[in-house]
Amino acid sequence: MNKVMSRTAPKATSRTAHPHHRPPTRHDTRRPGGAPPRKPSIRGRRDMPPTTTRNAGTALRPPETALPSVRPTDVFADRLLAVLSGQRPVHWMLRHTAGRAYDELSRLAERSPLRTRGALPVVHDIGYYVPSEGTLEVFARISAGDRLRALAFRLERGQDLRWRCTAVETGPRP
């Protein structure tokens, strides 16, 4: 494999000064946004500056800027939409499916039921039903322009606590 690097042709005098197995070094010492703080070298604890102790009465709070956790229903609706609209290949969902769901998904993806001309389809609304612990039956309304389509799938939580899709269906194509 040949690596392509952009640099000028070496001069006869610079052959000994700069090795040819490395890209040229940066001569501008400024960094965008300032240089990051350096980590202190590993030394003994007596050389380290004293750390401030936490007040025992101070409680830990999550930061106000923390994002809300994403639900598995939203994640799988987006993933299935990407596959069924032709934006992603079917094998992209291989590790996120279990049982016959991958076969159903590959059969559906051949027809590309959610592919549209013009506007890209988006998840309009999501609802779900919990038939038992660790199982979700989800429906999603998919909109593309003025059209509204249906997508239904089943999620089950495995022994490893990961959600996997076990069934997929779409509404009839008009």
Shape: extended
Rg result: 27 Å
CATH class of the domain at 72-168: Alpha Beta
Portion in beta strands: 15-25%
Q: What percent of residues adopt helix (DSSP H or I)?
A: 10-25%
Distance between the termini: 50 Å
Q: Please give the oligomerization state of what you see.
A: single chain
How confident overall, as mean pLDDT?
76
3D architecture notes:
By secondary structure, the protein is an alpha+beta fold. The chain has a domain at about 70-170: Roll (Nuclear Transport Factor 2, Chain: A), CATH 3.10.450. Helix content is about 15%, strand content about 25%. It has two helices and four strands. The protein has a four-stranded antiparallel beta sheet. The longest helix is centred in the middle third of the chain and has 13 residues, at about 70-85. It is extended, with a radius of gyration of 27 Å. The model is unreliable at about 1-10 (pLDDT under 50).
Please outline the helices and strands.
Elements: H1 72-84, H2 101-111, E1 122-132, E2 135-144, E3 147-157, E4 163-170
Antiparallel strand pairs: 1-2, 2-3, 3-4
